[in-house]
Amino acid sequence: MNKQELMELLKSVASGDTLVEDAALKLKMQPFVEIGDYAKVDFHRGIRQGVPEVIYGAGKTKEHILDISRAMLSNGQKSVLITRLCPEAAAFIKKELPLDYNELSKTGVIGPLPEPDGKGTVVVATGGTSDIPVAEEAAVTAEVLGNSVTRLYDVGVSGIHRLLSHMEDIMSARVIVAVAGMEGALPSVIGGLADCPVIAVPTSVGYGASLGGVAALLSMLNSCASGVSVVNIDNGFGAGYMASMINHLE
Amino acid sequence: MNKQELMELLKSVASGDTLVEDAALKLKMQPFVEIGDYAKVDFHRGIRQGVPEVIYGAGKTKEHILDISRAMLSNGQKSVLITRLCPEAAAFIKKELPLDYNELSKTGVIGPLPEPDGKGTVVVATGGTSDIPVAEEAAVTAEVLGNSVTRLYDVGVSGIHRLLSHMEDIMSARVIVAVAGMEGALPSVIGGLADCPVIAVPTSVGYGASLGGVAALLSMLNSCASGVSVVNIDNGFGAGYMASMINHLE
Amino acid sequence: MNKQELMELLKSVASGDTLVEDAALKLKMQPFVEIGDYAKVDFHRGIRQGVPEVIYGAGKTKEHILDISRAMLSNGQKSVLITRLCPEAAAFIKKELPLDYNELSKTGVIGPLPEPDGKGTVVVATGGTSDIPVAEEAAVTAEVLGNSVTRLYDVGVSGIHRLLSHMEDIMSARVIVAVAGMEGALPSVIGGLADCPVIAVPTSVGYGASLGGVAALLSMLNSCASGVSVVNIDNGFGAGYMASMINHLE
Amino acid sequence: MNKQELMELLKSVASGDTLVEDAALKLKMQPFVEIGDYAKVDFHRGIRQGVPEVIYGAGKTKEHILDISRAMLSNGQKSVLITRLCPEAAAFIKKELPLDYNELSKTGVIGPLPEPDGKGTVVVATGGTSDIPVAEEAAVTAEVLGNSVTRLYDVGVSGIHRLLSHMEDIMSARVIVAVAGMEGALPSVIGGLADCPVIAVPTSVGYGASLGGVAALLSMLNSCASGVSVVNIDNGFGAGYMASMINHLE
Amino acid sequence: MNKQELMELLKSVASGDTLVEDAALKLKMQPFVEIGDYAKVDFHRGIRQGVPEVIYGAGKTKEHILDISRAMLSNGQKSVLITRLCPEAAAFIKKELPLDYNELSKTGVIGPLPEPDGKGTVVVATGGTSDIPVAEEAAVTAEVLGNSVTRLYDVGVSGIHRLLSHMEDIMSARVIVAVAGMEGALPSVIGGLADCPVIAVPTSVGYGASLGGVAALLSMLNSCASGVSVVNIDNGFGAGYMASMINHLE
Amino acid sequence: MNKQELMELLKSVASGDTLVEDAALKLKMQPFVEIGDYAKVDFHRGIRQGVPEVIYGAGKTKEHILDISRAMLSNGQKSVLITRLCPEAAAFIKKELPLDYNELSKTGVIGPLPEPDGKGTVVVATGGTSDIPVAEEAAVTAEVLGNSVTRLYDVGVSGIHRLLSHMEDIMSARVIVAVAGMEGALPSVIGGLADCPVIAVPTSVGYGASLGGVAALLSMLNSCASGVSVVNIDNGFGAGYMASMINHLE
Amino acid sequence: MNKQELMELLKSVASGDTLVEDAALKLKMQPFVEIGDYAKVDFHRGIRQGVPEVIYGAGKTKEHILDISRAMLSNGQKSVLITRLCPEAAAFIKKELPLDYNELSKTGVIGPLPEPDGKGTVVVATGGTSDIPVAEEAAVTAEVLGNSVTRLYDVGVSGIHRLLSHMEDIMSARVIVAVAGMEGALPSVIGGLADCPVIAVPTSVGYGASLGGVAALLSMLNSCASGVSVVNIDNGFGAGYMASMINHLE
Amino acid sequence: MNKQELMELLKSVASGDTLVEDAALKLKMQPFVEIGDYAKVDFHRGIRQGVPEVIYGAGKTKEHILDISRAMLSNGQKSVLITRLCPEAAAFIKKELPLDYNELSKTGVIGPLPEPDGKGTVVVATGGTSDIPVAEEAAVTAEVLGNSVTRLYDVGVSGIHRLLSHMEDIMSARVIVAVAGMEGALPSVIGGLADCPVIAVPTSVGYGASLGGVAALLSMLNSCASGVSVVNIDNGFGAGYMASMINHLE
């Protein structure tokens, strides 16, 4: 469905010729258009929900990222989030578009951040300082998708009082993203303290028997706390997206 | 905190001597009592939320399960859910307590099911018929915790039209539990179709290179769909609990 | 068997002194000659079938690749396919021989492409844009071996409608190569839709729990669709060769 | 689509109201009906192709297998293949239906074998005698699906002359299924000798470092012979099905 | 060195002909005698240290265990500890010798427990109730080797307050054995709270991604707390022995 | 607890208003302060025990390491140990602070080494020369924490006499750190010879089936010698810390 | 080659019509005959070398084992070795043929043991008593193949003096089979002491991180001693065969 | 034992004061001297056997390699073999000593090659051209240790006739080193053809599911041919050493 077809569909809704439900279904069913010959871009989310579009930057050339960004903006997107964006590509895009680049999390945002419209607060916690880049990817993703985020960094389980000193934040969260490498125990402890869903993110921080994050991943999958689910190693974006989805449930 | 202390705390709240917030914090902070010398039971959830308590039956003797069940009921619980309950233990308990046993999912419920008080519907879907026992554990857990559940079984991705014929259920769910063994692709496809959070449950169904469910687990962790998170292999209870938690968010 | 011996064998067939069957057997049984001291080259395929020879470029010096190419051409080969050819070696060879180099798939072709003589169409599909290099290796291999190829890129299962919009291509294929990394679910879905054999190629695209393509590999081996078999991770050449072999079956 | 609807569709084709192409598409798109509440059975293959239906017996109760078999037969199927059928279930079904049970391969066939209508011969070869059960599953599957099968058992690579003494069978095959456990080298050697596609089946035969068939699986995936693809460990059915599909290509 | 030689050596020490240091070295250097033809028994530890000998019961016949026990007792041992002793073998030995059998930990003790002569207290803690058998093996081992043991069971990290309510025990321990399955986080949390060495014991408790205890093992090896080292999965004996060795350091 | 609060607490102890025990508990319970926004530093150990603080240098910028070092020194620390410190960061810090850098072990020490106050000697042994960097990390850590260290390098089990020629060192140690890659057998042999606890450290030395140190790790976990426990691959610091903790037990 | 053809070949040699070298080559090239339809038996070894034939009993029915044994004996074999022979099958065969069954190693020998004709002594050593069954399989195999065997059992590396007390045996061996589970260090220590080839056999003895013998296997593959090579886990037969082959080298 | 002591020992033998056997034992028992503080060099082999010493170059600085080489030469060694020697270190040493460097196998030899004194021929075979570097390490090692070597390269099992055309070499070998990556089937096929011991060397050649040589390693460990044992991945030196040891057995 191209833009013109979209306009016609919406006019048809406005005039009563098409039911709202039918239009919504149609939008869900035909969600992409092709840009050049290297990508099919999915516009329906932004149009329907008013949230920014996302580009996964890894493995894409800087020219492709720029092209896709421009196509999104010209289709009416107000903001674009780019994850796994290397500094070189960021510098290249910055010359052409108003990019706000975060070197720590390797994320870039084009356009204004939306007003937070989630129902509560997303807490993003990490076990150590080395986990912060992944946590920031989650936090920036959640912010770009319209969430208010509280960061609790370096509250790992080997110094449990650091975590307990933030009980109020944990108790008042609507959803928590718990990021940890090495033994990956943070989500279990937080899951036992909190009443809300916990999204666990293993990180590849560590060496030797951490096996590139597999140790933390296994630990989190075996969490004895209820209300914990897990995303891929280093997948801050996935955790932030899932947290936002939960936080926007009516 | 034993029962008497609990009563005193509540009276103190009633008389205004203790603030509601302080009492709530206290309840969260001291959540267990000891039953015999083999278990510390956690009562605060039921007291605070009115939902049934849960006993993980695997590795417990039938006598212990009976004792814990009785302790829970005598502490005011209306219903008790027992997971991983073998038929022999079920038969033993049934003689003493009004147990409703589901042999397929190996779950037992003592007491009445609560009225569904979740905000929407929990959809539980499976790839094949062999995944149904795990799915039933998730479904029964969600029902016992107060959710309305829709079952979509045997809608695996190798016959994609079976899934597409249930688009309305998928579109109207508030949270979806997607259960699959073998290649574990169901959550990815559902995640791409749905707007709501998807909890993926790998099962140990399959043989050879399924590696006891590890193939499905890895597949789900690598899902290219956003809004998907994963629990342990065969962990139907964990998925049902997580889904209920999300479905009860205000 | 050197060229002269080959000529004598063929004359002997022509004169009736050797039966065609015996000559064919002899050709199959002695299929190589030595070039320098570093390789035994297999000529019988090209001579018998009229298709191009193939050089696996990885781990060979550019001088060796050039030598082998020249030996093949001087033995009567019309075209030579070189896979895993790095840009530097390609530049080196291009100075000496008419090489057509595809930087995306790292393949080079010396000499003209043959006319497609396969019985039907080979469809090459990918889950995402990052899988395209491996898919191109498969597609170029199939083309060099005399097949007509249809490319369906970026039709991954998390946006199932992208795939369904190409049902006609899938239904009319004689053999399909399905290339995917991450959760590797594409072959299962295609296998459920198509009537023809599906060759699944896992790619090393992804991070963390993708384990360098092992997640996708396991997923494909466990496909619940019938008519799917699998080649090594990133083995586009192997898939293209297998597809061509199937497509040329009388 | 139930049987009546199918009849109406076919009448509509007969009367010219529906184009053949449209009907074919419709049949492919709605390929299942529900039997009881435990299975969705896929009829379109048999109706379209005239070949027997297949039931995967593992994990199904003997009553369910009987019910599904009857439903298939009453829908017009002439033959039904049941794989992974344990002797107890076989004995149970035999009382009700004319089952031909093969205890070695754990397969059962209800109804007559079809006349072979494949284009050539399917060769099924094994490395050792312990691989025969898996090979028989492949061979019976191919026979039930209308193929002429040649068995070459116990021709493993550690006694290469056993294999070479069957060169004529290998040279004249249209597709070969190569079954081996332990070091899994058979498909590589056969792939180097044959001109046709080779489907490799690793078996779980062996002990210690065979890792339940993973050693053979890895060996086959790394085959240096072209024209070899692999199915799951012990998946004789999948190999037989794939071989039949290739052997029936026009 | 047989008993007579030992006597002579000791007399020689007594008479001043052999220095104490030389005798000690000699005892360490020749530490075994052969019993029957199936075992070499190591007596020097008991003789030098006055502590009981240990028999690893797994894989030994009940007759062999009895023979070795008798040989030890007749060599002057006051007590013998048998680990991994199945109930059948225990019943068999009990008829002949005064065995005290603990069915939970599968340990048996012949002879009196020694008076605790360790320098402090050994704390043995578990994450859940399912870890208790392994913990009991550690506790009984430590007791038999002369240690005062404090048990803290079911104090897992998903209910952190259960652990914090035992801070005094943790603070006053001289060495702690922390036993946990599933996510294996207990040693990390205890290691962060305690000032003394922590011996971590992963257990094979759990299912699916616990991989038979490997998840807990990896978690413990990656502990971000200092002062934690790890023994094999389910190796309660090894942990109890190591703890005793540390607790007896002068 | 910041520095001022610490002073007040100590004055309160001095005046008798606070019991020593209460103050000690308080110090243990609130062990960190925040430095900038990137790290929570744990001061209580140094204050309480008089030993140096430790910074894990990997993944920290040289500026952060310098800041943390300065904060530690200005809080009264006499010495600071930095592990995993790359030469570039060492050179940077050396310009500002009196750093003693050991390029072999990648450790740096700021300030004087403390007088050894451990109860005995820590022996650090290696199997080969390639294991020395990890062993040096352990040895330097132990020295900085106040231990007298004896180094026994290149005494691997394939030349057992090299080890036996150092029996006196082994017999007189209070705790032994045994460092080995490849087959990782050193701790087993030492564990059988020594009377004291052995901390085993696998190293990533080796190639092929050493799997980055996993072979040595597994070997050590399966040690048939009693009194051996294991830390993570290449974790010289952890072993040195554990050894020091044991060596300082009263 | 059947028996008659063999006789004719031998007569032809006797008459001088066939050269000995040609006959030997012919025997090597056609080494099997078919027995029934379930096995191809390889006679050439026995005929050429005068040594007993071997049957791998695992996975064969007792009837098949009996048939193959009889065929071998009727072809002139004096002795037959059967490995992995379960007690039930042994009892069955014993009724028909003079079988000497060793329950420990699960080996059976029909016919007389040959006179040892190896050049030296084969030493078979084990780390512990649990490794003895595998060691006995190696020892019996070597004896049946004509070797003089010295057994050194329970000489594991955690009590190094047990091994050193047998230095003379080790020094005078022509080839050594070193059998060990758990940490698998025995071959490394023996390899460092001996001058002759060492065949290492990992066993599946152990639990937890022994991973069914994989830990010992990896340890042995990484042996830092030269002159050590490895066979599969629990493969006593393979080690005995290899040792015999080396011991018979002229 | 230093050189002077050695001389005295030998004089003592000459004069009859020391028995030859006692001297030999003494030499075996004290086999090393220390060079600098970084290595214990083992001289006894060369002195006793007249063969060159070996230095493992990986992980050693070029200065250390030079020092050890000089020490060996000044102790009377005629030749020194250095393995895993990088080109830079080779160039450095060449300036000082007469090094013969082989860039393909990364081996260097100082001094003359010994006359072959092995009993027969060592055959070194490879599956492909990429395996040649590892094979050359084995071949050069065997040559330096006094063996006559026949090279059979690129005779992999996917073109079985390449191997069969060298049957005479295989039949006349005293020991064979079979080197292969990918599916690692070469040793199985050779083991089935040859009468002599086969040392299998897996290589890390390949990609994807070759898992850095683990696939080939597992394949070789599971070889169904008797008389095959295995060394570590890429361990050409170990195979050459083992082959030489076997080839020199009297």
Identify the most extensive interface between protein chains. Answer: B-C, 34 and 35 residues
Annotated CATH architecture of the largest domain in chain A:
3-Layer(aba) Sandwich
Query: Helical percent range of chain A?
Result: 40-55%
Number of structural domains of chain A: 2
Distance between the termini of chain A: 28 Å
Structural class of chain A comes to: alpha/beta
CATH level-3 fold name of the largest domain in chain A: Rossmann fold
What's the CATH class label of the largest domain in chain A? Alpha Beta
What is the count of β-strands of chain A?
Answer: 11
Let me know the average pLDDT of chain A. Answer: 85
Low-confidence parts of chain A = 28-39, 41-50
The coarse overall form of chain A would be globular
Oligomer: homooctamer
Q: What is the percentage of strand-forming residues of chain A?
A: 15-25%
Tell me the number of helical segments of chain A per DSSP (H or I, 4 or more residues long): 11
Radius of gyration of chain A: 20 Å
The SSE string of chain A, one letter per element, is: HHEEHEHEHEEEHEHHEHEHEH
Q: What composes the largest sheet of chain A?
A: 5 strands, parallel
Strand order of the largest sheet of chain A: 8-7-9-10-11
